[in-house]
């Protein structure tokens, strides 16, 4: 039997799944409101990534699903750390499985834009584009991703953060530009 995905839960129906959990304490400096981040228990799960086992090497693909919990740090919605690929030219495809949120995309020049993620949405992330998932809903946001095994992750280039942040302000989902300096 080839591996499958259960649409209702977004979980893989396969054996030998590799799971990585990212907790609040792992996300140092990621959220805008540092005091609110400190107030959150460090063991709070923000997201989990399930991956199918995959061979490594040129031409091979990773398949993984990110399950991003609903919640906020202060007013800011839970989100993944986000990254460029180490191999900048390598792209990726996201596919929305459940929940609702935003895919934040940012060029190397710092131009940022969003795509709405919902069940069945397909997102083509071009090369040279940083990407982060943001859960703006009240359910778990799950999205399946396919990317080249050679792509790698570059987190350091985003140490200053993305150019846009998403908050719940006065009951509305609002994106705000961030001034760094
Ligand atoms: O690496 P993060 O920014 O924490 O995102 C978590 C994961 O999300 C997706 O599944 C990506 O395809 C993975 O490559 C990434 O590791
Ligand atoms: Fe990626």
UniProtKB/TrEMBL annotation:
What is any one GO biological process for this UniProt entry? Answer: glycolytic process
- Entry's EC annotation: 5.3.1.9
Listed GO cellular component terms? Answer: cytoplasm
Record key words, sorted: Gluconeogenesis, Glycolysis, Isomerase, Metal-binding
Q: Which InterPro entries match?
A: G6P_isomerase_prok, GPI/OXD, RmlC-like_jellyroll, RmlC_Cupin_sf
Pathway listed for it? Carbohydrate degradation; glycolysis; D-glyceraldehyde 3-phosphate and glycerone phosphate from D-glucose: step 2/4
The record's comment on protein family reads: Belongs to the archaeal-type GPI family.
Q: What protein is this chain from?
A: glucose-6-phosphate isomerase
């Amino acid at each position: 039997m080839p591996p499958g995905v259960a649409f209702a839960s977004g979980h893989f129906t396969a054996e030998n799944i590799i799971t990585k959990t990212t907790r609040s304490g792992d996300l140092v400096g990621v959220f805008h409101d540092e005091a609110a981040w400190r107030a959150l228990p460090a063991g709070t799960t923000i997201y989990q990534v399930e991956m199918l086992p995959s061979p490594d090497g040129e031409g091979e693909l990773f398949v993984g699903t990110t399950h991003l919990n609903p919640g906020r740090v202060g007013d800011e919605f839970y989100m993944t750390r986000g990254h460029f690929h180490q191999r900048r030219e390598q792209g990726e495809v996201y596919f929305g499985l459940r929940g609702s949120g935003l895919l934040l995309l940012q060029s190397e020049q710092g131009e940022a834009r969003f795509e709405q993620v919902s069940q069945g949405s397909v997102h083509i992330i071009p090369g040279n584009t940083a990407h982060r998932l943001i859960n703006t809903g009240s359910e778990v946001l799950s999205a399946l991703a396919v990317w080249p095994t050679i792509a790698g992750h570059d987190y350091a280039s985003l140490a200053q953060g993305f150019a846009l942040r998403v908050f719940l302000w006065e009951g509305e989902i609002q994106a705000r530009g961030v001034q760094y300096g």
